[in-house]
Amino acid sequence: MRFGISSTNGVRYFLRKLEDEGLIERERFKARGIRLKEKFPSEKVRVVPILGRIPAGEPIISDENIEGNIVVDERLAKGKYVFALRVKGNSMINAGINDGDIAVVKKDPYPSEGEIVVAMVDGEVTLKRFVRNHGKPILKPENPDYSPIDLSSYSSDQVRIIGKVIAIIRRFY
Predict the structure, then answer these.
(1) Is 91 a catalytic residue?
(2) CA distances (Å), 44 to each of 106, 121, 165, 166, in order?
(3) Can you name the CATH fold of 45-169?
(4) Regions of the chain short of the pLDDT cut 70
(5) Ranges assigned E (strand) in 29-158
(6) pLDDT tens digits, 131-160
(7) Could you give the CA distance from residue 15 to residue 13 in angstroms, rounded to a whole number?
(8) Is 140 a catalytic residue?
(9) Rg, Å, the chain Cα set
């Protein structure tokens, strides 16, 4: 459940996708017969800036706002406006997103139901799942200790969806 997969079919699907991408090899009919491939198929990479903070407005990629960079496979970071944010807090732990992880975000103000988004609400930036409850847009945390944010209780100039999370990079330390 840590990765939001609630059935063995979901795990099989996820493993099949990794195998199709050439990232793992699986030995059929063998328990735990999964190996990382030594060389990844794509040699093309992209440098994505880690924005330490987002000012009140659009994310600005400038020297003052860049905390660092990460290198990712270019297939992961498609599109012109891709950036990364360091996750702070634990409101998304049940979605497998922990404090200190790096969220790779594609700028897109139109999320689909269930996507994890970076939103600015009343001047504060947050990372939550976008859902609708009886037609009302909600930012839902993935931790029962936190309350959902009902976006319909804010004016349109107080809310902005900045982008959707396209990847989470875990930092092991």
Answers:
(1) yes
(2) 19, 36, 21, 18
(3) Umud Fragment, subunit A (2.10.109)
(4) 1-10, 38-43, 52-65, 171-173
(5) 34-36, 45-51, 66-73, 82-86, 102-107, 116-121, 124-133, 136-140, 149-150
(6) 999 989 999 999 999 999 999 999 989 999
(7) 6
(8) no
(9) 18
The CATH 2.10.109.10 domain(s) of the chain lie at: 45-169
Catalytic residue among 91, 106, 140, 164: 91
User: What are the backbone dihedrals phi and psi of residue 55, each rounded to the nearest 5 degrees, phi first?
Assistant: -70, 165
Residue that the structure tokens 């989470």 belong to: 168
How many residues are given for the chain? 173
User: Rounded to whole angstroms, how far apart are CA atoms 36 and 23?
Assistant: 6
Q: Residues 6, 17, 128, 156: which is the catalytic one?
A: 128
pLDDT digits (tens, 9 = 90+) for 54-69: 433 344 444 456 788 8
